[in-house]
Amino acid sequence: MAGLGAGTGLGLLLVVAGLTGRRILGVRPTDGRPRLGTGAHTARWAAAVLTALVVWAVTGWIAGGLLAGGAALAAPRLLGGGARRRAEIDRTEAIASWTEMIRDSIVAASGLEEAIVATERVAPGPIAPEVRALVHRLHHQSLADSLMQFGAALHHPSGDIVVTSLVIAIRMEASDLSSLLSRLAEATRGDARMRVRVEVGRARVRTATKVIVGVVAAAATFLAVTNRQYLAVYNTATGQLVLVVIAAVFALGAWLLERMAATELPERFTARTASPEGVSG
Fold it and tell me: Which tens digit of pLDDT belongs to each residue from 178-190?
């Protein structure tokens, strides 16, 4: 029954993915048209559906299957995210390094635009695509407009500071760009150091969250496998309702733990909206 339910769920997922144009497990469509969604997103939903069907088939609890599927869907966000947070720190440090590259190149270059072009080949990996797009735009757009679109592509608070400062310096015809770039790089590296300190401070809360979730999941699985009679009270409609209430309490606790461990980043202070003519701010 578990295998039949899992196969049915997977088949329904494939049908829905085909109708909506979503990718399955990262496989791209062959017709070249853009599709919505990502392979990781689809894989998470597939795992959630399969988990729900298996738990429902094994226990006979509809509420248990739905709750297990929801837990499987929320688990990556609750227990993971380390790679994403590390990528944000690397991106912040990359912006600081790129700013220092411009500062070092501006001495030998004839201006800011030439210095930016010189950083194309050596741009830090996390922002290399954005830097290449910036250099490409410089061939047919003004430096200020290109930088504004570059900031929109970065979508990063530290990138906004660097871009806005450079645009103001261009329009005001500032002469001491080297000192400005040094201060910008120092401020951006300070932001990266702050994020590292916050990440270390929140590590204890994230570890506690993983331990709590693991113990609860292991205890529930152990009882369901070895002592079904102990859980027979949940076979009734009232027991299913109680199970939902218990799960809601645990979900609230997990949400509070996730909020405690989350890092709230400042909002971008430049609001840019896309328009047919480009990016305006």
Answer: 888 888 889 888 8
Q: pLDDT band for position 16 (50/70/90)?
A: low
Total domains, the chain: 2
Candidates 155, 37, 27, 36; CA nearest to 87 is 155
Whole-angstrom distance, CA of residue 254 vs CA of residue 269: 31
Q: From CA 5, how far away is CA 8, in angstroms rounded?
A: 5
CATH code (residue 146): 1.20.81
Task: Give the global pTM.
Answer: 0.63
Domain edge (last residue) among 180, 195, 210: 195
Range of the domain at 38: 1-79
Classified as helix, coil or strand, 81 is coil
Name the residue among 34, 10, 12 with its Cα closest to residue 23.
34
Q: What are the pLDDT digits (tens) for 80-117?
A: 667 777 888 899 999 999 999 998 888 776 688 888 99
The residue type found at 15 is: V
- Residue 279 bridge partners (DSSP): 274
User: Amino acid letter at 170?
Assistant: I
- Residue 239 CA neighbour count, 13 Å, CB half: 12
